[in-house]
C-alpha cells in the first residue's frame, strides 16, 4: 500500500470524524486546522502523533485497524527516511 493511499484513507477518516463533531464556534476552521495538523504529522513521519488523531475504532476498508495503520506508517516511514 502506498504512502499516498494510507494518507488518503487516514485523512478521509479524520475528516468524517471531525464533520460529525458539533458545538464549535467555527467548524470549518477547526476542520481545516485538524486536517493541516494531520498532514504535518504525516509529513514529519510522526506515527505517534498521527495515531493520537485517529479514533479508537478506526477502520480503513472495513478491516484495517489502528494497529495496521501503525505498522504501515512505521514501515513506510522507515522505507522513505528522506
Multimeric state: single chain
Whole-number total of structural domains: 1
Estimated radius of gyration:
13 Å
How many DSSP E strands? 0
Order of helices and strands: HHHH
Mean pLDDT: 86
State the shape: globular
Q: How can the largest sheet be summarized?
A: none
Instruction: Summarize the amount of helix as a percent range.
Output: 55-70%
What does this entry look like structurally?
The protein has helices spanning 3-19, 27-43, 47-53, 66-79. It has 4 helices and no strands. With 82 residues, it is mostly helical. The chain has one domain (3-79).
Chain-wise SSE layout:
Blueprint: H1 3-19, H2 27-43, H3 47-53, H4 66-79
Helix pairs in contact: 1-2
Which key features would you list for this structure?
single chain; 82 residues; mainly alpha; 4 helices; globular
Provide a compact summary of the structure.
By secondary structure, this protein is mainly alpha-helical.
